[in-house]
Amino acid sequence: MKIVLNTGGGDAPGLNAVIRSVVLSSEKRGWEVFGIHEGYRGILEPEAYPDGGIVRLDRQAVRGITHVGGTILGSTNRGNPLSYPILDDKGEWTTIDRSGELDAAFKEHGFDALVAIGGDGSLSIANEIGKRTGINVIGVPKTIDNDLKHTISTFGFDTAVSFATECLDRLHTTAESHSRIMVVEVMGRYAGWIALFSGIASTADVILIPEIPYDLKCVADKCNWRVGIGAKFTIVVVAEGAKPQGGEISIVGKSVGQAERLGGVGQKVAAALEAMTGQESRCVVLGHLLRGGSPTAQDRILSLRYGAAAVRALEEGVENVMVALQPPFVKYVPLSAVADAMKPVPLDGDIIATARDLGVCFGDD
Ligand code: F6P
């Protein structure tokens, strides 16, 4: 068996652990693994790489990387081969379908399977590539956002939550010293998992998530109420995809061939709360810090489990699935069921209920 793997979309702590797990599990079976640089760019622009864009991954190549953040293969969120950005004759950006080149490369190298490590966007692309080229695709669910359907958890999420929690703990003390409202914006795209989990863990007073559009009047009331009870500071965690009731998500911009970039809501919320309450407010954006650093022990274990499960799936002859954590098992779910689907925070689950019982304000009451 000759496996080719890649890492696509935004990076997440644990990518290297998955790569190592796929390689070691494959070597055990006498199989070979190859890695494509930067998503599919290694195939589409081989001249950009001294090694030709595809690298053999053996035991030596993956030694000592389980705890290392990022990805030894590199990643990109501009490299969708089905919609590849190019400059046209008039110097304007447009996109073309380059999946035929992937098909040719897979056949030339004799690859039997593609292990695609990615989030919803990358797995949707991999699913389509599987259909067009006929290669068997095994998806591995990656994203700090934890917004993939059919899996309890994506790797990278726990590390992001742990780091955000530590930051929020630190911001508590400075917020209290200065009697300020501290608004902390975290990533998560259209789901509020990171904001919710880090907010609860760090005992934030207000958590604003995309699943619950907010009314700033409720948030301002909460800030004023806290002053009334002698707590002169308020910690507000806001997910980048949170939006006001009847309003829109805050977008930074969009480039050709890329998903829209979210951001800016934290600053808007901080400015509005200062105006509404008269309390000094500051905004901190954690942004890409959430994607950096060493994976937590939980993320390392999850990543290693996913990598080994991907190889077992191939051994069992399973086709076009994503490995998914459905405790106590790692199961296989059809890749087509994951593509273009997202997992929002369930509003009827115990997590939101717990937060409300603890007095957390979601900006809706
Ligand atoms: O999907 C992961 C993620 O980090 C999101 O939380 C965020 O919106 C996005 O990627 C940012 O991507 P980038 O800045 O790398 O384009």
Tags for this entry?
11 helices; alpha/beta; 2 domains; 7-stranded mixed beta sheet; binds 6-O-phosphono-beta-D-fructofuranose; 20% strand; 4-stranded parallel beta sheet; Rossmann fold; 365 residues; elongated
List all distinct small molecules, including ions and cofactors, that are bound in this structure.
Answer: 6-O-phosphono-beta-D-fructofuranose
Strand content: 15-25%
Structural class: alpha/beta
Question: Any low-confidence stretches, pLDDT <50, length ≥5?
Answer: none
Largest sheet: 7 strands, mixed
The assembly state of the depicted protein chains is single chain
Might you state the CATH topology name of the largest domain? Rossmann fold
Q: Counting H and I runs of at least 4 residues, what is the number of helices?
A: 11
Strands of the widest sheet, in order across it, are 3-2-1-6-7-14-15
Care to describe what's here?
The chain has 365 residues and is of the alpha/beta class. The protein has helices at 15-28, 41-44, 99-109, 120-133, 157-178, 193-201, 216-228, 265-277, 297-315, 335-338, 350-357; strands at residues 2-7, 32-36, 54-57, 84-87, 93-96, 113-118, 136-141, 181-186, 206-208, 234-239, 251-253, 261-262, 281-285, 321-326, 329-334. The chain folds into 2 domains: 2-155 and 295-338, Rossmann fold, CATH 3.40.50; 159-292, 3-Layer(aba) Sandwich (Rossmann fold). 36% of the residues lie in helices and 20% in strands. The strands form 4 sheets. It has a 7-stranded mixed β-sheet, with helices on both faces. A hairpin with a 7-residue loop joins strand 11 (251-253) and strand 12 (261-262). Helix 1 (15-28) runs parallel beside helix 9 and helix 7 (216-228) crosses helix 8 (265-277). The longest helix is centred in the middle third of the chain and has 22 residues, at 157-178. It starts with a strand and ends in an 8-residue tail after the last helix.
